[in-house]
Amino acid sequence: MKHEPINILLVDDQPGKLLSYEAMLSGLGENLVRATSGREALSILLKMDVAVILLDVNMPNMDGFETAEIIRGHPQFEKTPIIFVTAVYTTDIERLKGYGLGAVDYVYVPVVAEILRTKVSVFVELNRKTRELQQLNLTLEQRVADRTANLEQEISERKRVEEELRLSGERLAQMTRQLIAAQETERRRLAGELHDELGQICTAIHIKLQQAKLVCGPAAESHIEDGIEIVHQAIQRVREMSLDLRPVMLDDFGLVAAMKWYFEVQKKLTGIPVDFQVQTSGAVLPPDVNNTCFRVVQESFTNINRHAQAEHVRVELHQDDDEIQLVIQDDGVGFDGESARLRSLEGHSMGLFGMQERVELLGGQFTVESRPDQGTRVVARLPLPETLASRLCGSGFA
Ligand SMILES: Nc1ncnc2c1ncn2[C@@H]1O[C@H](COP(=O)(O)OP(=O)(O)OP(=O)(O)O)[C@@H](O)[C@H]1O
Ligand SMILES: [Mg+2]
After folding, report:
1. Burial category of 302 from C-beta neighbours within 10 Å (exposed 0-12, middle 13-18, buried 19 and up)
2. Where along the chain do its domains lie?
3. Homologous superfamily assigned to 254-394
4. How far, in Å, from the CA of 233 to the mean position of ligand 2?
5. Mind listing the pLDDT tens digit for each residue in 14-43?
């Protein structure tokens, strides 16, 4: 690699000696700068970066020692190496004086070209390495500064994205809450209409057919009886659909009554008995907790009927001071949770995901434990807000 030439300052009042130094050092390929007095040397130093100074001791006006003293006194040059060249000052005392003034070496006249070249080249190399090191340091500092700036930018960008995510998560949760509330209201309305409107129309038809049966001739009687049976089934179906949409007992008699009724209906439909274990204080639960527990039961039973091939189902409802825990356990075929999760992520199934969503919206935890041939256990734990509030009061947050 080609190096940029480095400045070597040659100071001597005799032009002939300067010429001979130049001849000796030209082979180094560096930039040789001449000065014929100490004063000129100082002004050159102020203008350029010099790697080493070759300084004649014996000069008129300002000798080499004085020049060296002034150079050393300047903070910018206190480390610039000075090699004294002398023919006259050769005693130890004078050499010591030279070293005391910061000389790095002493060369005596007659100067041996090879020795001078070697000595000077050491300092030239040192200077070059120092510059390279400084350059490397600068580059490193710049890279560290750039990387730090990038990191700071990345961090603030990440924080911004996280904040946006948090806000959209909150918005989504709020929308889901509203959606669930609207769904419950709509189900309640539909259940009412089914029961009141369609149910009454069917009942009226039922009465009319019974009246018709009394006055019709024998030819029509069996048809009318078939009609009465069909209307009877329709009334039953309307009632079931209405209750399935929104069991009135959930509003009127609470969760336990609604669950008992539901298990009776299930047993009639599927023949699977339900072992229902209840342990609650009987306290009235908040409507959203009621609804969520009931919908988890409904969805779990839909899954059991569709997928489990179970023979027994056990349901536990356990309420203590601060939470309600609902467990639905079947002894059916079970399933692989990971593939069900993937199917759910691909949008093929919503049941488990919907239950989890509802439970977590109320600050609860939802878990499903299942393995092929080992049955399925659905657990929903929901905090009870009143007790949470009273706890906060107790801990001085009121
Ligand atoms: N009790 C269970 N016994 C056996 N497999 C079950 C049970 N519950 C869920 N699964 C399995 O988990 C999968 C996901 O259930 P999930 O309720 O999320 O969806 P789905 O019932 O298939 O469809 P839907 O969206 O109509 O509920 C089911 O397809 C089924 O393979
Ligand atoms: Mg399902």
Report:
1. exposed
2. 7-111, 254-394
3. Histidine kinase-like ATPase, C-terminal domain (3.30.565.10)
4. 27
5. 999 999 999 999 999 999 999 999 999 999
